[in-house]
Amino acid sequence: MSSGTEGCPAHASAVRLGGLEYQQTPAELYRGLRREHGAVAPVLLDGDVPAWLVLGYPEVSYVTAHDELFARDSRRWNQWPNIPADWPLLPFVGYQPSVLFTEGPEHERRAGVISEALEAVDQFELGHDCRLIADELIDAFKGSGRAELMSAYAHALPMRAAVQMCGMPAGSADTADLVHDLRTSLDAAEGDDPVAAYVRVQERIQRLVKDKRAAPGPDVTSRMLHHPAGLADEEIVQDLISIIAAAQQPTANWICNTLRLLLTDDRFALNVSGGRLSVGEALTEILWRDTPTQNFIGRWAVRDTQLGGRHIRAGDCLVLGLAAANTDPQIWPQGHVGAEGNSAHLSFSNGEHRCPYPAPQLADVMARTAIETLLERLPDVMLSVPAESLTWRPSIWMRGLTALPVSFTPVAQ
């Protein structure tokens, strides 16, 4: 992939996806990329590594529906000779024996184990557990009349729910360390070491699998260990990391992004309590307008092919622009993104590698319970800063606020 070749991701017009001044308003970036490049744009990842960003809804749908052309095994990547050992995106693209990188019958086998383990989760029981977790978290700050909901509530609730679901003790320092390391590996801030954080996550989940092998329980990990497919412990470790990571960071941002909408948009702020616009509608609108997983890396071209008028070479990396696809003007010609409240968004991806059933429903239970409990317990909750002062984390991968400070009438302990 020489940098001077037309149609190559590294050619002169490629846009760097790191350090953008418009990370606070990525929609502007996507509009600009569409105007200049169309539905498939040449971009540069960290360290000026070339890739393609797939922006169009039809194009993302096509890529995710055609595994024979755009596969998940990252060992196909033609850029590996240029990737340093400390590259910050290695936790995303470094090949692991995980369901994320499997293909064909092996992917069906691995995804089937996950789906069956998750299907056995009683959604009413999960909702009950989430309510107990929400009450405990709210009790910790209800008397002060103020809270920062990202750290005190939105991140904590889905992580505690997810680790309980997988058989880990909730509320321990060990679990808190896991939360921190997962956040670092998925969405590293300046000075963080995402590769080292991911190694610590692996070590903690290895201990969980070992413990559950010795003493199984009514949890996702034990069901995976005793599934007839007979997955190896290392395969289960990698798949559990995928389950917990998908349950925590995206769900936390889904909760907080929805709370931001409810607290700043008069359509919701004035009507949720009256029942005219539901929390469910707000959750769906966020998946269209401010989806927690903005971009996903990725797919790798199996052979030379065409996409969106671009020549994609074998081994090229494609980043799935889920947020850009969800706001594609081709599907929202009037600009009213998410107005119909339908669920044809790509926030859980699409095709064989989409978020496995019933994971989206479990995430919805967590998010809905978190929001409804907060609004019920603190009915006059409001932002404690001007809405325009809220800032987004400087990430092109995850869409979430740095903080969501609120105030409310203190509640007696």
Automatic annotation (TrEMBL):
Q: Entry's CDD domains?
A: CYP_unk
Question: Domain of life, per the record?
Answer: Bacteria
Q: Which InterPro entries match?
A: Cyt_P450_B, Cyt_P450_sf
The family annotation for this protein states: Belongs to the cytochrome P450 family.
- Protein name per Swiss-Prot or TrEMBL: Cytochrome P450
